[in-house]
Amino acid sequence: MSGLIEALVAFLLLVGSLFALLGAIGLYRLPDFYTRLHAPTKASTLGVGGVVLGSLLYFSTLGGGLSLHEVLITLFLFITAPVSAHLLAKAAMQQRLPRASRTRGEPWE
Asked: Which of 47, 64, 75, 96 has the greatest CB tally within 10 Å of its CB?
């Protein structure tokens, strides 16, 4: 494997890990449900996407060709994460979950 491919794989893994870490920190630190919902759906999706793309690049350069598993994981991840976040937000609005004072907007009115 060439040095350029190894550097690109390492970069994707590091960026993906950084985004996943930021998503986990955001889930822990943000004040209410609505803002907490934003961190794992955006940052963690990008984090897992970066790690899977790094895996796809690594194993496709080993000579096995393009791996269908990583492509399908990425496709399903980017389709299901926004849909599940939307459904969770709609359920929270129906339940009228309390918001932090810094959260702007009235989602249920």
From this structure: 47
| CB distance 77 to 85 below 8 Å | no
Question: What span, in angstroms and rounded, lies between the C-alpha atoms of 29 and 66?
Answer: 39
Cα(71)–Cα(52) distance, rounded to whole angstroms? 8
pLDDT tens for the 109 residues of the chain, in order: 688 999 999 999 999 999 999 988 988 998 888 888 888 888 888 898 899 989 888 888 887 777 788 888 888 988 888 899 899 989 988 888 888 887 777 766 6
DSSP codes of every residue in 39-89: HIIIIIHHHHHHHHHHHHHHHIIIII---HHHHHHHHHHHHHHHHHHHHHH
Sign of the Cα pseudo-torsion (60, 22, 25, 75, in order): negative
